[in-house]
Amino acid sequence: MVKIALIYFGISRSPSQTRDGIYRNIIKPNEDIGVEFTQISFLNMIDRIHNARSGEYEVDIDRSDFLKIYSDYYFLFDQKKNKIDAELEIAKKRQDPFCDDWASIRNLLNQLYVLKNGWNAFEAINNDKFDAYFFVRPDILYIDKVLIPDLLKNMSHAKSILIPSWHSWGGLNDRCALARPEAAKFYASRFNQIKKFCKYNDLHSESLLAWIVSLQGCYVGNLPLRGKRVRSQGYVKEEDFQAASMHIPSKTRRFHYNSSKREVRWGYKLRDFLS
User: Fold this and answer.
1) Which residue pairs from 257-264 have beta carbons closer than 8 angstroms and sit at least 24 positions apart in sequence?
2) d(CA 139, CA 241)
């Protein structure tokens, strides 16, 4: 039997709209063929969203909605406790890539902080061994059906991770991923590498992910799963899935990333890539 840890991470903006897509396209087709899921939520608890970049202005959030994404385990963190000050100051020593007074960077740091601490908490109590970890954001309306046993056939290396090809923005899409256990640890613990990454780079989510999986010697392949962002008002954003799309091989291959040039390659020796 294939055993999968399905991890929800981030903010659950409009779960009544997104949960059916998760069940219909990820959970049910795989349970029908014998896949066993353990569902885990690492969620940022907030009372209000104000994000000019996403068009969300002082939108009140009902915290009870966070429980509408069914999970076997919940790790809920109050974002008001603000545990990201040190990492934010590190990021501010460089440029704000979004030019929105660091609002987007704060959101990213809060998401990564909760993901890291949720991962550590679950690892401390978990005795199960999973074939892979499936990371999904609960504020995404997923529109493609995926069969996990077929995808696992493309992930023979212990450090394999599948990433969507769209919206890579010079790095790797960080909205969802299917990862073997060793690669999952690196994906979930990105927060620990902020200081090292920001020594030479502006903090950017896609670049950070690409840099970390390259640094850790991961093997990257394509996750054929698309999703539309859902805003807290219930608005579903229409996505251009060709935007910043890149060719990612179906079967995982050794991945290299040059963060200074924001270039990616598969299968090259690192010294050849950086020269």
Assistant:
1) 257/171, 257/210, 257/211, 257/213, 257/214, 259/197, 259/200, 259/201, 259/207, 259/210, 259/211, 260/200, 260/201, 262/170, 262/171, 262/207, 264/168, 264/171, 264/172, 264/210
2) 17
Tens digits of residue pLDDT in 110-145: 999 999 999 999 999 999 999 999 999 999 999 999
Are residues 251 and 221 in contact, defined by beta-carbon separation less than 8 angstroms? yes
Q: Kindly state the average pLDDT of the residues 209-237.
A: 92
d(CA 122, CA 69): 17
**Contact indicator for 191, 113 with CB cutoff of 8 Å:** yes
Q: Rg of the chain's alpha carbons, rounded to an integer? A: 18
pTM of the model: 0.94
CA distances from 42 to 56, 81, 91, 233 (A): 22, 16, 23, 22
